[in-house]
Every structure is written in structure tokens, then in C-alpha cells.
Design goal:
This protein is an alpha+beta fold. The protein has helices at 2-12, 41-45, 50-65, and strands spanning 20-25, 29-35, 69-75. The protein starts with a helix and ends with a strand.
């Protein structure tokens, strides 16, 4: 799933080399922290948060199929 987030996010940003996705494992939940260039944060979040909302929906769907829960946080 980490590669999935990186693939989608790198397609959106102007500085893909500065993009980092960190995976923090819990017992049943995985938290993904997305860090990128400050200029690109708005592109990842999107208008009214719709872009990051769509990424979170896809991530939750993939995680649910594996019987887990996944959360995406955009860290500035």
C-alpha cells in the first residue's frame, strides 16, 4: 500500500524526489504519513480536500480487503 500512495502522490506533485511516505504499524491499523515539499501540499490535498479524500477512500478499500484499517496523514 505504501507503493500505491507513492505512485499516486508522485503523479500529483512538482517535486516527486522530495516525497516521503512513512509507514507506522499498529495492531490492526496502519498509519501512513505523507511528507512533501511545502509547495506541493496543496496539490496533494486538493480543492476542499477532495484529492486526499479520494486517496484515503482507495486506501481504506484496499486495507479492508486485507482485514486491516489504514489511515493517511499529510504532514507539513
Amino acid at each position: 500500500m505504501k507503493e500505491f500512495i507513492e505512485y499516486i502522490s508522485k503523479s500529483l506533485v512538482d517535486h516527486p524526489e522530495e516525497l516521503q511516505v512513512t509507514e507506522v504499524e499498529g495492531e490492526r491499523t496502519v498509519v501512513y504519513e505523507l511528507r512533501c515539499n511545502p509547495e506541493d501540499v496543496g496539490k496533494v490535498i486538493g480543492k476542499s480536500g477532495k484529492t486526499v479524500g479520494a486517496i484515503r477512500t482507495l486506501l481504506s478499500t484496499v486495507a479492508a480487503r486485507q482485514g486491516r484499517r489504514a489511515v493517511l496523514e499529510v504532514v507539513e
